[in-house]
Design a protein that fits this description.
Layout: E1 4-6, H1 9-22, H2 34-51, E2 55-57, H3 63-85
Parallel strand pairs: 1-2
Helix pairs in contact: 1-2
Amino acid sequence: MVVGLTEDPERLVSIRRNRLRMLNQTETTAYADLETVRAEVTEARRFYTKMGWPVIDVTRRSIEETAAEIIKLLAQRNVVSAEALHF
């Protein structure tokens, strides 16, 4: 099972800028450019939709909440698969 994870572009830019600062990288790059990141997130969402994968927005979720959601999706998938085997 594949699950697409996405995040708010503004939040992602903030994380990337902090990461660059921690690495003592002061050069401005597309990596932390808001418009570039917006395009990346949009493209990722389109790809997930095209592939038919479930998508979880992790912007305001902890790792534990994200894991719980994935486990829930997996359980739902297994129930559907098990029901299909009985017919």
